[in-house]
């Protein structure tokens, strides 16, 4: 950061450390022990699509690579805001394999110059009550936060349980400290 940036109060955004995603399998064990949330075996990466053959080829290559694994399903979808979601599904017991695939999607897009298009990555959990939880990785912040929708139609969330999950996982993954950045991801595939 330069002198002028410091003087004007500007700061450089934290660079994402995609290797933080590899902390998720251990965090899943901690989460299960403390809150009974277990991995569903599904996760997703959200990004803004770009016109052009280079991006299309990269996206097709990612899907083809991940689909080669037996028991892995890869499904693209587009939400109401125009973001593409690449949903990866594994056996629920294979949290490590799921995280490896989510990491591969992120690094493939980043290595081809599409890093600025990445929005977030999610790993999904559920508990015996039927509650759904997404542990959201903000690419541009390099941090995680929990999102627990209660009623998607009314856009209500369980903030108290989200704060409990934050406390449980604070030593496992870098948690986003600014609660105003805990944006709801309504309509994310895997939360329905």
Q: Which tags fit this structure?
A:
192 residues, 26% strand, 33% helix, single chain, PspAB-like, 6-stranded antiparallel beta sheet, two-stranded antiparallel sheet
What does this structure look like?
There is one protein chain. By secondary structure, the protein is an alpha+beta fold. The protein has one domain: 2-Layer Sandwich (Alpha-Beta Plaits). It is 33% helix and 26% strand. It contains five helices and eight strands. β2 (73-78) and β3 form a beta hairpin. α3 (53-67) runs antiparallel to α4. The longest helix has 20 residues, at 95-114. It is globular. The model has no long low-confidence stretch (mean pLDDT 88). Pfam families: PspAB (PF22742).
Write the layout of secondary structure elements.
Blueprint: H1 3-8, H2 24-35, E1 38-48, H3 53-67, E2 73-78, E3 83-89, H4 95-114, E4 118-126, E5 132-138, E6 143-147, E7 149-151, E8 156-157, H5 159-169
State the major sheet: 6 strands, antiparallel
Structural class by secondary-structure content: alpha+beta
Count of discrete alpha- or pi-helical segments spanning 4 or more residues: 5
N-end to C-end Cα span: 42 Å
Summarize, please.
Pfam families: PspAB. With 192 residues, the protein is of the alpha+beta class.
């Amino acid at each position: 950061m330069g002198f002028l940036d410091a003087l004007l109060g500007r700061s450089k955004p934290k660079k994402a450390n995609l290797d933080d995603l590899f902390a998720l399998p251990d965090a899943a064990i901690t989460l299960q022990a403390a809150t009974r949330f277990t991995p569903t075996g599904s996760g997703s990466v959200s990004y803004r699509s770009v016109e052009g053959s280079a991006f299309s080829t990269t996206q097709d290559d990612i899907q083809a690579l991940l689909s080669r694994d037996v028991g892995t399903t890869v499904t693209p979808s587009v939400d109401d805001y125009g973001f593409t979601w690449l949903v990866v599904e594994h056996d629920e017991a294979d949290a490590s394999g799921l995280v490896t695939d989510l990491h591969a999607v992120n690094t493939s897009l980043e290595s081809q110059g599409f890093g600025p298009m990445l929005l977030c990555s999610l790993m999904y959990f559920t508990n015996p009550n039927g509650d759904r939880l997404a542990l959201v990785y903000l690419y541009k912040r390099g941090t995680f936060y929990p999102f627990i929708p209660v009623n998607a139609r009314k856009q209500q969330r369980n903030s108290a349980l989200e704060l409990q999950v934050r406390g449980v996982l604070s030593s496992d993954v870098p948690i986003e400290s600014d609660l105003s950045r805990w944006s709801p991801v309504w309509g994310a595939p895997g939360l329905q």
